[in-house]
Amino acid sequence: MSTARLALPARGDRRGWLVAPAVVVLLALFVYPFLYGVVISFQPLEGGSIWSNYVHFFTTSTEWGTLWATFKLAAPATLINVGMAVPVAFALRRNSRKQRIVTTLLVVPITLGTVLIADGMLTFYGPVGWFSQFVHGLHLYSDEVRLTHNYWGVLISLVISDFPFVFLLTLSYISGIDPTLAKAAGTLGANAWQQFRLIYLPLLVPGLSMAAALSFVQTFAVFPSAILLGAPAGPTRVISIAAYEAAFEQYDYGLASAIAIVMGFAQLLVVCAIFAFRQAFYTGPATSGKG
Amino acid sequence: MNESFQQLRLDGVGRQYPTASGSTVDALRDLSLDIRRGEFIALLGPSGCGKSTALNCLAGLADLSSGSIWLDDTRIDVLPPERRGFGMVFQNYALFPHMSIRDNVGFGLRMRGVPKQEIAQRVKAALSLVQLEGHESKLPGQLSGGQQQRVAIARAIVIEPPVILMDEPLSNLDAKLRIEMRAEIRRIHRQLERATIYVTHDQDEALSMADRIVVMRAGSVQQVGTPREVYGRPHNLHVARFMGYRNVLSCRVEQQNGDHITVGQQQIRLQGTGIEVPAGTQTVAVAMRPDDFEVAAEAADNVIEATVQQIEFGGRSSLLIVSSPIGELFVRLSGQFQPGDRVRLHIPADRVLAYAEAA
After folding, report:
1. Which pLDDT value is given to residue A1?
2. Is the predicted pLDDT of residue B4 greater than 80, yes or no?
3. Chain B residue whose CA is closest to A178
4. Are A240 and A182 contacting, i.e. CB atoms less than 8 angstroms apart?
5. Could you say which of A8, A70, B246, B337 would form a disulfide bridge with B330 (CB–CB 3.0 to 4.6 Å)?
6. pLDDT, tens digit (0-9, with 9 covering 90-100), for B238-262
7. What range does the domain containing B190 cover?
8. Domains and CATH numbers, chain A
9. Residues B177 and B250 placed together within one structural domain of the fold
10. Cα-only R_g, chain A
11. Can you give the CATH number for the domain in which B111 is found?
12. Does A2 touch chain B if contact means CB atoms closer than 8 Å?
């Protein structure tokens, strides 16, 4: 968060009212629906305790199981994205023609919608898709290659759609690190790997944890690809599907809201954990002092 | 690397950079230099003259396009920076912001696999050499510019390198600290008895610190000499201008006898010293430092009559801008003057330098 604080306008200074339209929009589009959801989550359809929607969620295995199913997708997807973004961004850290071309190519998936990616993946990774034929053609694997309509399909699509985002964040963090630091480490005897491990990586941790937090929140909210590429009745029945079914198949908005709030809390918990981890590292500017 | 070295030799070192249009530019051309152990060398020149390129070539941070670098009998320009073992102090210090002062200074020793206990001892000794005890646990961001600069020096010297490279290390400090740190760096240099190569654009810094100065311009060496030589007898007009010869005038050659040269313009005649002026040269550029003028005694020769135009007060002496028959001159004199005062200026013949170049 920025450290700047809103100064209170002096009495008689009416410029402060300029913020009013934005406040109204925020209240109408975010705060009101959120509070509305919280309130109706405490109004169970069949009456009873105000907690009964939450009790129902945490005592029904098909419901609370979705938390774990979502986590099993979001956590690996986040780790894979961050893990891949670091070496690629590191290799491209210097601004050059090559960097711009490769960056553009890597960022293309951001412009494709989830549904388009799913469609492409069904063709490419499907049982008779190119990938399967390629693997069989080279005799690398003789059984059926199943990478769609299961856990792997969803994981791959999360990686494809989220990697560009994490990569761009990581690239901006890496280019913010003064390259003279690595040069200085070099003159002091550090080889390329030591320069990366002892200089770049520790300075990157705060940025990477930020990227990981954002990536986790995004992937935890997976919905279309879990249906299109996964097994929405089985291992990829993620929490957003549970909320969707409660709202639009059972018309139980109270339960749906309760599930959505549980989902938000789960995301918040993980983000807090990541930020606590981040605090253990140096988070100041990654430049080399004066100059 | 070899700690008992006797000589660092640069042999025709050059460095070219490709430009956007596909051609190449010479950032550094044909730099040849022998540096003895214990010498303090200053690379002096305006920005873009190639002095930092030369330093980066030495450190291994830039590849050579031509030439070679030798430490005694070992060719080192083919080694990566981490295997040359030179200590380098960067212009922006390049301290590792996430490491304590102790870890910053100990970094080079850690890379060399020195045992922990020995690292602790040597870091302590290095920090005491730069007079920075008691700050071991702080982060670089918690120190002042001058302190950071001393950490950078400690970090470079603790590995006991044969050669210490410094890239304008004082340019980010305020004037007072800069003067103090000059003496400090000289003291450390003497104590270590290694070679120091110091890049600067500040001629005072180079004159006051170096044993020898290498004056550079547009990628090539203009003059190599002791501070006295470079200051008193600049090799060419570029060096002269850079060394503070602010008055450069075009004059007719009246008489020439070896180095002794008589130049004239209007009714003024000046005895001067020709710097490699070929016989038969018609016009020369005459260079004079403001500090070399004095108020003329009654019957002196080499006299210029002038009128004071402007005065810049400077404490013990003031810089006067005077108009004379040979043009406007910058003159530094002690005493009280008013605009409009007439002054008779004298300058010794050995301080009037004539160059066979266009002014």
Report:
1. 42
2. no
3. B94
4. no
5. B246
6. 999 989 899 999 988 988 888 899 9
7. 7-239
8. 26-279 (1.10.3720.10)
9. no
10. 23
11. 3.40.50.300
12. no
Tell me: pLDDT of A290 over 60: no
Could you tell me if residue B2 is inside a domain?
no
pLDDT at A141: 82
Q: How close B138 gets to chain A, by Cα (Å)?
A: 12
The neighbouring-strand residues paired with B294 are B346
**CATH code, domain with B336:** 2.40.50.140
List % helix, strand, coil for chain A (3-state, nearest 5): 70, 0, 30
Residue A180: which of B92, B98, B172 has the nearest Cβ? B92
Residue B1 lies in a domain: no
Residue B248 contacts residue B237 (beta carbons within 8 Å): yes
Distances (CA, A) of B75 to B8, B78, B231: 10, 7, 34
Q: Report the C-alpha gap between A177 and B352 in whole angstroms.
A: 52
Asked if B164 and B287 sit in the same domain, the reply is: no
Q: Which residues contact B174 (CB under 8 A, 6 or more apart)?
A: B145
Residues B141 and B29 in one domain: yes
**Inter-chain residue contact B111 with A199, CB threshold 8 Å:** no
pLDDT at residue B1 is higher than 60? no
Nearest CA in chain B to A285: B97
d(CA B222, CA B357): 14
Do both B155 and B74 map to the same domain?
yes
Lateral strand order in the sheet of B87-89: B87-89, B163-167, B195-200, B40-44, B212-217, B220-225
Q: Are residues B155 and B216 in the same domain?
A: yes
- For residues B262 and B268, give the distance between their C-alpha atoms in angstroms, rounded to a whole number: 10
Asked whether B290 and B247 are in contact (CB, 8 A), the reply is yes
Cα gap B306→B293, rounded to integer Å: 12
Alpha-carbon span B345 to A94, nearest angstrom: 58
Check residue B97 and give its pLDDT: 94
Contact A188 B91 (CB under 8 A): no
Q: How many CB pairs under 8 A join A and B?
A: 101
Of A187, A190, A198, the CB nearest to B86: A187
B188 lies in the same domain as B330: no
What is the tally of structural domains in chain B?
2
Give pLDDT tens digits for B79-113.
999 888 899 999 889 999 999 999 999 999 999 99
Look at residue A94 and tell me whether its pLDDT is greater than 90: no
| Residues in A touching B98 (Cβ below 8 Å) | 202-203, 281-282, 284
What is the secondary structure of A99-146 as a DSSP string? HHHHHHHHHHHHHS-HHHHHHHHHHHHSTTSHHHHHHHHTTS--S---
Which site among A188, A193, A194 would you substitute to test the B interface, given the most B Cβ atoms closer than 10 Å to its Cβ?
A: A188
The minimum CA-CA distance between A106 and chain B, rounded to whole Å, is 26
> A284 touching B, CB under 8 A?
yes
